[in-house]
Amino acid sequence: TVYDLDSRQFIYQKNADTRFYPASITKIVTALVSLAHFEPDSVIQVQNGYKALGNTIKLVPQDKLTVRSILYGLLVSSGNDAALTLSENYPRGYVGFVKSMNEYATNLGLANTHFTNPSGVVNPDHYTTAADLTILAREAISNAVIRQIVITRSVTISSVDGQHSYYLESTNKLQGREGVKGLKTGWTPESGECLVTLVERNGHPILITILDSQDRFGESKQLIDWAYQNFTWKNL
Question: Which member of 69, 78, 191, 220 is catalytic?
Answer without folding.
Answer: 78
